[in-house]
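call fold(seq) -> tokens
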Amino acid sequence: MCIVGAAVKRTAEGAVCRARMNRMGQPHDRVFNFSAGPAVLPEAVLRQAQHDIWNVQDSGIGICEHSHRGQVFNRVITEAEADCRKIADISDDYAVLFLQGGASLQFAMAPMNFLRKDRTADYLHTGEWTKKAIADAKLFGNVNVAFDGGPSSFDHVPAADEISASDAPAYTFYCSNNTIYGTQYPSTPSSSAPLICDASSEILSRPIEVSKHALIFAGAQKNLGPAGCTLVIIRKDFLNGANTGLPQMLDYRKHVEKGSRLNTPPAFAIYMMGLVFKWILDQGGLAALADRNQKKAAIMYDTIESSGGFYKGVARPDSRSLMNVTFRTPNDDLDKKFIEEALANDMSGLKGHRSAGGLRASIYNAFPKAGCEALAQFMKDFAQRNG
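ret:
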């Protein structure tokens, strides 16, 4: 635990805990959290949760203690779905689910429901997460890798002329934002087949074309809340054609029938997502967030481009993510030094993914512009001292 007025402390994980002053001149013991996930949450949401863990809705009972079928949680989940629909303009043609198992379970659940041994699904391979999704899909049917980003080290998402679709695929699967390599589709890829999207690391960070998709899913721990819940948006007519004879917990229809309460749901995670949805509405919705996110990302990419080659971006400019800014210094030793010095300056979570190395600044919805400005200034100072 941090004690106000105490010297800098480092936990076993290496995080810095330091008493600082916020804009109002009050002690503030939080650092800039650039983690790719679990990731930064809105401070207003965290403050409300502090209260509601003790006593939610003046019920005298904390949110973690309420029955998932009681009146209080009924209100929580009903409002969460309604606010999600409002934010993303989700019509009644779609079901909204709050499930468990993370996006990784969806890698298997989607083909289990919509692929068969005599059918083929198209997958656009843009990194580690599509690699896992492809491996799971092969357990249930044929997979056509319609785009393979491996030969180019996953530095971009495909243009239309790079996609080799199969004949009459059961669906086309893509990951809209890759946290590891820092790539993002600038717009929804076109497909004549039903479109399935893993939107885990960019969900609700910009307007989303729900109507172009048959299924969208996203783990919560990037932009929506804590780990433990997965948002699933699924078109009802697509669901009507799903395979039968599935285990109940892996059958989307069963979850729709029970309103995301086929079993005890991740109640606290759903509650937190509900608070985040209200925060998004308070910020002005997805158009306002998209504008803010573009400005934050511009600070980071402008710093990289103006470094005289000291910093090199990983993603191609036409595929750069607004959520995960990936870059490198001239060598691995300087990368390590950068991470250590940034941590000492209250900037945590900048180490790149273990499979890719380098540096990564994740600047999700709740990440403040001031943090981007602080990192940009640190990057300039570091380059000047080490260039």
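Residues 1-19, 22-27 have pLDDT under 50 and may be disordered.
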